[in-house]
Design a protein that fits this description.
With 174 residues, this protein is α+β, with helices and mostly antiparallel strands. The chain contains 5 helices and 7 strands; from the N terminus they run H-H-E-E-E-E-E-E-H-E-H-H. It has one domain. Strands 1-2-3-6-7 form a 5-stranded antiparallel beta sheet. It binds zinc ion (ZN). The site of zinc ion has 8 residues, from strand 7 and helix 4.
Length: 174
């Protein structure tokens, strides 16, 4: 994705109020970030425990989503899959997040929910060779990574479309 300034990130948020945008804490080290390597900037708000954000390019512009994590965590003895990046991890590292839909629907409490990596760092996670491809040669490993990146991009677009009321996403938790 293209690098964004702090102001551009704040402007990108589509599903929260101005006061919520003003209260949001941005990730540190934005200048040090390798923007070209990632498809989405995701982070948890260090000052608001259950808040998190995803910012990515959608329809030719930067779109930021404010998310709220469930205040319960799943057992670390089970495993679970992030429905955005498809990483399988300990269930404690995956969280249920809800995003308010835009406009009136959102103001009336209408949300989209899904299971996502608790740290919202799907973008970096998909750059790792998946365990299922570790025994393959380098070329096949990089293909497997490309596939994960493409999958994340596609599911993220679908999730955002649902929040923007463009089209419903079947991966939603209902
Ligand atoms: Zn993920």
């Amino acid at each position: 994705m293209l690098a964004l300034t702090e102001a551009a990130i704040r402007r990108s948020l589509v599903n929260c109020s101005r006061s919520e945008v003003a209260a949001m804490t941005l990730p540190r080290d934005l200048d040090a970030l390798d923007w070209a390597a990632i498809d989405v900037l995701g982070w948890r708000d260090p000052k608001a425990e259950l808040r998190g954000y995803l910012v990515h390019e959608h329809g030719g512009r930067a779109v930021g989503l404010a998310l709220r994590a469930a205040d319960t965590t799943m057992s670390s003895r089970r495993s679970a899959m992030c429905l955005l990046c498809h990483s399988v991890q300990s269930a404690a590292a995956i969280s249920l997040f809800t995003a308010r839909r835009v406009g009136e629907a959102g103001r009336n409490g209408n949300t989209v929910g899904t299971y996502i990596c608790a740290d919202l760092d799907c973008a970096h996670r998909v750059l790792d060779v998946p365990p299922t491809a570790l025994h393959l040669d380098e070329e096949l490993q990089s293909l497997a990574v490309e596939e994960r990146v493409a999958g994340l991009r596609q599911r993220l677009q679908a999730f955002t479309s649902d929040v923007l009321l463009e089209r419903a996403w079947t991966g939603s938790f209902r």
